[in-house]
Amino acid sequence: MKTEIILVRHGETKWNDMHRYQGIKDIELNDRGYEQAQKVKKYLVNKEIDYIYASDLKRARNTAEIIGEAHNLEINTLQGLREINFGEWEGMNFKEIDKEYPRLFAQWKDNPASVSPPGGEMVEELQTRVVNSIEKILSQQKQDSKIIVVSHGGAIRVMLAYYLKIPLQFFWRIEIDNVSVSKVVFFDGTPIIKSINCTSHLKN
Fold first, then answer.
1. Cα angle 190-171-11, degrees, rounded to a multiple of 5
2. Residue 39, pLDDT above cutoff 90
3. Alpha carbon 163 to chain centroid distance?
4. Burial class of residue 152 (count of CB atoms within 10 Å of its CB; 0-12, 13-18, 19+)
5. End-to-end CA distance of the chain
6. What is the 3-state secondary structure (H, E, C) of 39-93?
7. d(CA 187, CA 204)
8. 203 — pLDDT class (breaks 50, 70, 90)
9. CATH superfamily of 2-86+123-203
């Protein structure tokens, strides 16, 4: 018995383009993000999909809604699939954070699992809630399902790190681009990573 989870990162936003931390700020897709969502929709159109889940933040939910048009499926939203809460760093770019929080940001860059942004969330907390959300999805849906999950870069990274048993200190070494597709197949509950960060559909 197997269940396939197709992980999709949301399309681009204005803050992505400006290299600003978004976190749980509800930032919408920009024009390019909508174009990207249409491309990943086309890429997934011929796949038999049983369910679609998404973070409840607009950039993920709207990406999922565009994908769902091709499958006539409703979108199930889960708050647990949100991006990490960056606290006071949300809306800031790397240079601004480095200027205002030089010591803390240096620690974050060296080992992001060792500290949290002021007023924000630890990476371990992010991983726990995202993995719990995936486990909830798996428990609710029937075996042999194909499920699309639209989430965020950090959330997908820590999820893959968990299943690959990669220390959280190095989760950022997993590249997850906007509207990239990654796949995890659960064989009787055992996760097998089939692909990571596929972006071939963006070349069309």
1. 90
2. yes
3. 15
4. buried
5. 34
6. HHHHHHCCCCCCEEEEECCHHHHHHHHHHHHCCCCCEEEEHHHCCCCCHHHCCCE
7. 32
8. confident
9. Phosphoglycerate mutase-like (3.40.50.1240)
Q: Among the options 10, 19, 71, 201, which is catalytic?
A: 10
- Take residue 181 and report the two structure tokens written for it: 């597709």
Query: Domain-by-domain residue ranges, the chain?
Result: 2-86+123-203
Q: Could you give the C-alpha distances from 115 to 13, 25, 79, 100, 170, in angstroms and in order? A: 26, 20, 23, 16, 14
Which entry of 19, 71, 152, 201 is annotated as an active-site residue?
152
Look up residue 63 and give its amino acid. T
Residue 143 confidence (pLDDT) above 90: no
Active site residue 10: yes
Cα Rg for the chain, rounded, in angstroms? 16
The whole-angstrom separation of Cα 49 and Cα 40 is 14
φ/ψ of residue 48, rounded to 5:
-80, 110
71 is known as an active-site residue: no
Neighbours of 81 (CB within 10 A): 26
CA dihedral 96, 119, 110, 12 (to 10 degrees): -60
Query: Would you state the pLDDT for residue 34?
Result: 98
